[in-house]
# Entry
Amino acid sequence: MIFFKSEKKSQDQVHGFSHLGENFRFEGEIDCKGEIEIAGKVKGNIKAKKLKILESGSVRGQIQAEDVEVLGYIVGNIESANIHIGNKGVVRGDLRFENNLTVLEGADISGHVQKNKKEKIRRSDTDKVKYLEHNKIAS
# Structure
């Protein structure tokens, strides 16, 4: 009998966890389907499912992630469903969130804060509705 190893991976294996250590310096775009934890310095935009900037970590760039936790330093805008800024977290940029924003006492934020609606209606969708309503009335 011949057995074949399954090519299917569990969700955890596909998405995974990445840790960038304190001595790590990186310049460029990061696109991570899983969770990333930054203790070093990153210069560039980051997309991830979850992002955690540790106290020793710093990021200069735009962030897009489902969950963002800032315990260190960021210069750039954050777009996320949930944002948590720790008591030593420093943010120099705008925060846009959908669900929750948590800011602990002692956090240092300089920028605009905006809660976005989960469902954004695109102009093309509203135009379709107007078109359908108009045709219904006409018939």
Notes: The chain has one domain: 11-138. Helices lie at 11-15, 123-138.
